[in-house]
Amino acid sequence: MSFLVEPDTLAIMVIGVLAAVSCSLLGSFLVLRRLSMMGDAISHAVLPGLAGAFLLTVALQTWARDSGADLPGWLDSIVMMNARSGPIMFAGAVIVGLLTALFTQLLHQYGKVEQSASMGVVFTSLFALGLILMVRAARSVDLDPGCVLYGAIEWAPTDVVTVLGITAPRSALVLGVITLVNVAFVVVFYKELKITSFDPTLATTLGIKANVMHYLLMTLVAVTTVAAFEAVGSILVVAMLIVPGATAHLLTDRLPSMLVVSALVGAAGAALGTVATAPGWAGQVDTSTAGMMACATGGLFVVALLAAPRHGVVGRYARRTALSLRIVGEDALGLLYRLEEHGMSVPADSLVGRLRETLGVRGLTVRLALTDLARRGLVRRAAGEYHMSDTGRATALGLVRSHRLWESYLVKHLALPSDHVHHTAMKLEHITGPTMRENLAEQVDDPKTDPHGKAIPSSE
C-alpha cells in the first residue's frame, strides 16, 4: 500500500511540514541578520527551562502534599497539573529561550564580546546546566534525554486531542497555530523586519525601534523552537531554522521570494524525509524520521549550492570561465592587431606561447579562447597562422583605441610615468564601451598618438 494512504505517515509529514514552515519563515531573518547561531543557541538553551519547570512542579507537589496548605486557585491548578504537562514545560522553555537572546545581546552590547562568541558562551553554559537538570529529573521519572536531540515525531500521531469536534495530533494543532502566528507576524511587520534586518541604523532614524523588533523576533523564535522541540527534537529545529533560509538566499536576492522559497524548501525536506522512512515505501531506511528530514533539507541545500543560477558553485565557475575566455580572446585580438601594425605574423603555436607568457594563463585557456574567436567569426586559421576577419579587426581597433586612450589619460590626469601605465590600461580596456571610450577621448583632447608615440586608431 502506498504511504500516501497511511494516516500515521501523513500525520508525521504534516507535523514535519508545519515545523519546517514555521521555523523557516523566522530563520530567513536570522540568516539575513547574521544570527544563524541564535536558533542553535535557543534550541539547546531551552533544556534548563524544560527540566527546571519539571523539577519546580514536582517540588510544589511534594510541598503541597506534605504541608496540606491551602494554595491560591491559580497555584493550586499548577500544582495539581501533571509535572510533564505541555503548558508548564512550554512556559519554562520559552522563558529560558528569551533569556538566552537577552543575555546574548547584553553580553555583546555591554561586555564588548563578539556576537557569535557571546551566543556560544550563553548557550553552552545553559545547555550544560540543562543536561545536569535533565539527568536529575530523569532519576524520578521516565524523562528520556535522548528525545531532546531527535524528538519523537514517529509517536506524535498517537498523542491526539479533540478541538471543535475534530480529532487531530496535538503537535499538528500546536504547530499549525504557531505557523499561522508566524505568517501573520511576517505579513504585519514585513516593512519593519526588512529595514531592521538590512540597516538597523536607518530603521532608527525612521522611527522604527530596532531593539523592539529584535526582541519580538527572538520571542517568536523561542516560542517556535519550543513548540517544535517536543515533536521533532533539537536537530530538526536547528536544521529548519537555518538551512531553508540559507538555501533560499542562494537562489534569490529578493526578500519576498526568499521567504516563499525557504518555506517550500523546508516543506520539501520534511516531505522527502518522511518518504524515505515511510513503512512500505521502496528503499525505506530504518532510522530517525526527524534526522532524515534534516538530511533531506541539507541535500536540497547542497543542490542549491552547486546549481543556483547566480550564487551556485557551478554557475560562478561558468561565469568566471566565460569572463576569462573573453578577456584572453580580446587580448589575442589586440596582439594580432599590433602584429599587423608592424607587418608581422607569427605561427599559431608561437601566438599561443606568447599569450601564455604575456597573460600568465594556461595554454588550454588560450586555445579555448582562440577557438571561441574562430567560432564567432572574429579570426580564422590558415596556413598555420591566425588572421583577423573584418569583424575581428573592428573589435581589435576598439580595444587598442581604448588601451591607448587610457594610457594618455593616466599620464595626463594622474601624472603617472609613461612606463607605468601599460598594465593598468590592459585591464581597463576590457571594461570600456563605445560611449565611455569617446568620453575618454574628450578628456584627453582626442590625441593622435599615445604617450609611447604609437598611433591611436580613430573613432571611425
Number of helices: 18
Major beta sheet, strand line-up:
1-2
Largest sheet: 2 strands, antiparallel
Low-confidence stretches: 1-5
Give the beta-strand count: 4
H/E series, N to C? HHHHHHEEHHHHHHHHHEEHHH
Radius of gyration equals 33 Å
Structure description:
The chain has 18 helices and four strands. It has 460 residues and is mainly α. The protein has three domains: 19-244, no CATH class; 315-388, Arc Repressor Mutant, subunit A (Orthogonal Bundle); 400-443, Orthogonal Bundle (Diphtheria Toxin Repressor, domain 2), CATH 1.10.60. The strands form two sheets. Strands 1-2 form a two-stranded antiparallel ribbon. Strands 3-4 form a two-stranded antiparallel ribbon. A hairpin with a 2-residue loop joins β3 and β4 (385-388). α13 (313-341) packs across α15 and α13 (313-341) crosses α16 (390-414). The termini are far apart.
Quick gist of this model?
With 460 residues, the protein is mainly α. It has helices at residues 7-32, 36-67, 73-80, 86-110, 115-138, 147-150, 170-188, 190-198, 200-205, 210-251, 255-276, 289-307, 313-341, 348-359, 363-375, 390-414, 422-428, 434-443, and strands at residues 160-163, 166-169, 379-382, 385-388.
